[in-house]
Amino acid sequence: MGQCGITSSKTVLVFLNLIFWAAAGILCYVGAYVFITYDDYDHFFEDVYTLIPAVIIIAVGTLLFIIGLIGCCATIRESWCGLATFVIILLLVFITEVVVVVLGYIYRAKVEDEVDHSIQKVYNGYNGTNPDAASRAIDYVQRQLRCCGIHNYSDWENTVWFKQTKNNSVPLSCCKAALSNCTGSLTRPMDLYSEGCEALVVKKLQEIMMYVIWAALAFAAIQLLGMLCACIVLCRRSRDPAYELLITGGTYA
After folding, report:
1. Is the dihedral of CA 86, 90, 93, 99 positive or negative?
2. Residue 169: helix, strand or coil by DSSP?
3. CA 27 to CA 124: how far, in whole Å?
4. What's phi and psi for 17, nearest 5 deg?
5. What is the CATH number for 170?
């Protein structure tokens, strides 16, 4: 019965190491996605420290690939030293992912305050005639999130750009995508997106942070199982050095 348990643990451990390689790619993808999306919204979000969870998760993804290699070699060769190293590294990565989850929740809670603090300044700096990076960011967000203004399209009336143009219209990025003849005029509010951008930007950034949190939690659970299986193999090996090898089916002497 014990022999069956140890063989099963080793088989599961090898399978988990293959999952670690897949996890490495997924975690790096999640981290890269956060960076790319943040770049689209960075004018609305001044605190660069919110990228820390993404940086950590990319580092963890890279480390997981190495861990998978160490784990496979150590499990197949029945190396006590290799398995012990594998467990220690997994434990450190597990702790790191717990830190990622905590930081993710902290920064997720700060998103609304950060956006609220910076969005008014970004809209006041809009320059539609000679658009800079911030102006392009506003147009991008309004088109992508289908929104207009901070709370609604009337917020544009308080901007410097609106007062300078004096044409009683908002940027064309406020126009509903289905309308080809929209001019952005406030005399036709039915042509404009009615929802403000602030709430949608906050929601989008919080969703991004949740991707990081859920990815970290999912792979932390897998690593916990990996540590459990490795510990079973280590304990059995230390108590009984003569048990079945995984690849030969023979006796380890």
Report:
1. negative
2. strand
3. 37
4. -65, -35
5. 1.10.1450.10
Q: Choose one of 78, 96, 127: the last residue of a domain.
A: 78
Note the pLDDT tens digit of each residue in 122-163.
888 888 766 677 788 888 889 989 999 999 999 999 888 888
Is a pLDDT exceeding 50 seen at residue 243? Answer: no
Range of the domain at 164: 106-221
Residue 94 lies in a domain: no
Please, what's the b/e burial string for 172-184 (b: 16 or more CB within 10 A of its CB; e: otherwise)? ebbbeeeeeebeb
Higher pLDDT, 16 or 214: 214
For residue 233, give the 3-state DSSP assignment: helix
In a domain, 116, yes or no: yes
Q: Number of folded domains in the chain?
A: 2
Instruction: Please give the Cα distance from 126 to 123 (Å, whole number).
Output: 5
What gap in Å lies between CA 175 and CA 32, rounded to an integer? 31
